[in-house]
Structure formats: structure tokens, C-alpha cells
Amino acid sequence: YRFLLKQDRSLEPILKQILRSGTSIGANITEAQNAPSTKDFINKLNISLKEARESEYWLNLFKASDIINEKSFKSLQQDCKELIKLLIAIIKTAKSNSK
Predict the structure, then answer these.
(1) 26 part of a folded domain
(2) Which end of the chain is more exposed for a tag (fewer CB within 10 A), N or C?
(3) Coil, helix or strand for 51?
(4) pLDDT tens digits for the chain (99 residues)?
(5) What does the alpha-carbon distance between residue 13 and residue 70 come to, in Å, rounded to a whole number?
(6) 23 is in which domain, residue-wise?
(7) Considering its fold, how many domains does the chain have in total?
(8) 46 in Cβ contact with 53 (< 8 Å)
(9) Predicted local distance difference test score (pLDDT) of residue 39
(10) Do the domain assignments include residue 91?
(11) Is 4 part of any domain?
(12) Model pTM score
């Protein structure tokens, strides 16, 4: 964030968006771990999933706008895709276990 912001101050709004969506993933996962019910657990993980998908959108936009290089993009994209797959699997398991 700081590195890119130092390069171009005009990127601040878009950098704030990916920072917000990226940190929201972890915050909602932490909330899910302490959820009082399975329904709340699944809800918090669904929010994390939405935020992960939003982060993926911003990464794609960064790449298309040449804000990040190919190597950084591929690494971050792979991390994001793996996180999305994990969240989907956990949500599916939680839903099937709650029936």
C-alpha cells in the first residue's frame, strides 16, 4: 500500500478499496471463529468470501491498469483464488453439517 502510494498519490482511493476488502476477509474469519451459532458462522464466512472476490476484482483491475507487475499479480491472484476455494469448502461443510 505505502509503496504504491508513494509512487502515485492518485492511486489512494483504489488502494484504500483493496486494503479494506483484503483486511475485511481476516476480520470476518476471526468473527466467524467466535460465532454463537452455525448460522452466524456461515454468514461471517460468506462475508469473507464476498470480500475475497472483491479483492480479486481489484487485483485484476490493478493488473489491467499496470499498477502491479505480472509476477506480483500472479502471486496475489493465486493466493486469492486459494483463499476463495478454502472459504467455499468450509462454507459447504458447515452447511452440510448443520442439516
Answers:
(1) yes
(2) C
(3) helix
(4) 455 656 676 778 888 898 999 999 999 999 999 999 999 999 999 999 999 999 999 999 999 988 888 998 999 999 999 999 999 999 999 999 998
(5) 22
(6) 12-97
(7) 1
(8) no
(9) 96
(10) yes
(11) no
(12) 0.88
Cα–Cα dist 56/98, whole Å: 29
DSSP alpha helices (H): ranges in the chain?
2-7, 12-33, 38-64, 70-97
pLDDT at residue number 3: 55
Q: For residues 25 and 46, what is the distance between their CA atoms, to the nearest angstrom?
A: 10
Give me the pLDDT at residue 15, please: 84
Which one, of 79, 85, 62, lies nearest residue 7 by Cα? 62
Residue 41 forms part of a structural domain: yes
Report yes or no: 42 and 87 within 8 Å, Cβ to Cβ.
Answer: no
CATH of residue 64: 1.20.1440.60
Cα 49 to Cα 55: distance, rounded to the nearest angstrom: 10
Residue 46 to residue 14: CA distance in whole angstroms: 23
Q: Tell me the three cell numbers of residue 94.
A: 458447515
